[in-house]
Write a structure and sequence with these properties.
Shape: rod-shaped
Number of domains: 2
Helix content: 25-40%
Structural class: mainly alpha
Radius of gyration: 27 Å
Number of helices: 4
Strand content: under 5%
Oligomer: single chain
């Protein structure tokens, strides 16, 4: 039974890479060698386009809570726009709610 093949150190190409940056323990301990290999940055969290998405190109007059408004919200979300436009239709009248 053969074991899993491990990647070799990026620097010495002799020992298995068991440390970050694809280095072995010996190369990783040497600061001069470690600084030659950049960190592999993996962004964490929500991408910026979701934190401050652009406004949709046009408002909708669909009443809030209607199927048409929900369809518009789904399309805006798929395209990466903000869900609400400042000029969207007015909220429903509370007296008309069930």
């Amino acid at each position: 039974m053969q074991g899993k093949v491990r990647a070799l150190c990026q620097h010495c190409h002799k020992c298995p890479a068991g440390r970050p940056r694809g280095l072995c323990w010996g190369c990783y301990r040497n600061l001069e060698i470690r600084n030659r290999y950049p960190r592999r940055f993996v962004p964490k969290g929500i991408p910026d386009r979701f934190c401050n998405p652009p406004l949709p190109p046009y408002p909708t007059r669909a009443p809030a809570g209607s199927r048409e408004k929900l369809a518009v919200l789904c399309i805006r979300a798929m395209l990466g726009y903000n869900l609400w436009h400042p000029d969207d239709g007015p909220p429903p009248d509370p007296s008309e709610l069930p």
